[in-house]
Write a structure and sequence with these properties.
This protein is mostly helical. The protein has a domain at 47-230. 76% of the residues lie in helices and 0% in strands. It is built from eleven helices and no strands. α3 crosses α5 and α8 runs antiparallel to α9. It is globular.
Length: 265
């Protein structure tokens, strides 16, 4: 075999190995992507499982109802905060797949907040409607918290693709209420604490950062991240990749926190 034949055969082997590597890499990414959502779902159920286990085994605090109320409320705010963090993270990392997790996180936030209220309704007040109405009307932190819960109901109900199509452009401003809900939850958390407000202050700081990130122009963070990573694709190509095909309808849910994202937070 001549030297030219050897070089040609070497190039063919390299191409074949490169193609096989790309195929394997793509297959691995698809596998991880498929497993990520079930893993996140299971992870969001862990706090509930821990609470049930602690309740059944007597591991709750000295005031068990207060402990359950605190835990469910904390996890509700945590899930809502995580929901709001998805868009900034997607802009920074460029990983659009993150969008598909927002609906799940938002709905888990609603689930834990609703459970938080049910603990108060059933275990704390035992359906004493007179006292419940009185508390909502006269105790400011309960008033704010109940308002936040009510605002989450239409967000959870309209989080599906069908509702997004029905509401059209009205869907996005409606789901912007998630920020009002998050603020109401943090105010409720803060006012319910008699002394130590360290944790609600941390949530408030994170919310301020996330709100600030929403005020940054959509392309600014992405351009900065691309320059840091040394992206070489031309701006026109990136813009074309982000734009929908001619004649296609833009999804009104894009950029909204409680978004189905291909699968209500």
């Amino acid at each position: 075999m001549t030297g030219e034949g050897v070089r040609r055969e070497t190039r063919d082997v390299r191409r074949a190995l490169g193609a096989e590597f790309r195929l394997t890499s793509h297959s691995s990414r698809l596998t991880i992507s498929r497993l990520a959502k079930p893993a996140l779902f299971a992870l969001c159920l862990v706090p509930l499982g821990v609470m049930v286990f602690d309740a059944l085994t007597g591991r709750l605090a000295a005031e068990p109802i207060k402990d359950l109320t605190h835990r469910t409320g904390t996890w509700g705010i945590t899930c809502i905060t995580a929901t709001l963090a998805i868009t900034p993270l997607r802009r920074v990392t460029g990983w659009n797949r993150l969008q598909s997790y927002r609906r799940m996180l938002g709905l888990f936030g609603f689930f834990y907040i609703a459970t938080h209220f049910l603990v108060y309704l059933v275990l704390d007040q035992f359906f004493d409607w007179h006292t419940i109405v009185k508390d909502i009307a006269k105790r400011p932190y309960i008033t704010v918290g109940f308002t936040g819960l009510l605002l989450m109901v239409p967000l959870a109900v309209t989080s599906t693709r069908g509702w997004a199509r029905r509401l059209g452009r009205r869907w996005v401003p409606l789901h912007a209420l998630i920020y009002v809900t998050a603020l109401a939850g943090i105010v409720h958390f803060t006012w319910s604490q008699k002394k130590d407000i360290t944790r609600p202050t941390r949530y408030a700081a994170v919310l301020v950062v996330l709100l600030g990130a929403r005020l940054v122009p959509k392309g600014a963070i992405g351009r900065r991240g691309a320059s840091t990573r040394g992206a070489t694709s031309p701006p026109d190509a990136r813009q074309a990749a982000e734009e929908p095909p001619p004649g296609a309808r833009r999804d009104p849910r894009a950029g909204s926190p409680l978004v189905p994202g291909g699968a209500s937070g």
